[in-house]
Amino acid sequence: MYLISDNVDTLTGMRLAGVEGVVVHDREPLRRELERVLADKTIGVLLITELLGSHFPDIIEDIKLNRRLPIVVAIPDRHGTGRSPNFIMDYVNEAIGVKVQEEEK
């Protein structure tokens, strides 16, 4: 597992959990780091912060679509997720084409 983050706090937290990584902010450093990660066959899961992935979706989607490994997983950073509160229901609705009602509590 390896992390590419847009902030130091997320990297620090992941290092405490034993995950190494790097902080990048721009396209070219991200591209260079991804090339290094893709060449390292010991990395099976690439964690990338949602914000970084949303700034450079073309680069990330290319890896997801054209590579078997590493598996790319977008994670929220310390500011929380960029997804809507109902993103799982929206995903299911889109995937199966059926409106799923949320149970009232």
UniProtKB/TrEMBL annotation:
One of its GO terms (molecular function) is proton-transporting ATPase activity, rotational mechanism. The lineage of its organism: Bacteria, Bacillati, Bacillota, Clostridia, Lachnospirales. Belongs to the V-ATPase F subunit family. Gene3D superfamilies: ATPase, V1 complex, subunit F. Keywords: Ion transport, Transport. The keyword Secreted does not apply. InterPro entries: ATPase_V1-cplx_f_g_su (IPR008218), ATPase_V1_fsu_sf (IPR036906). This is V/A-type H+-transporting ATPase subunit F.
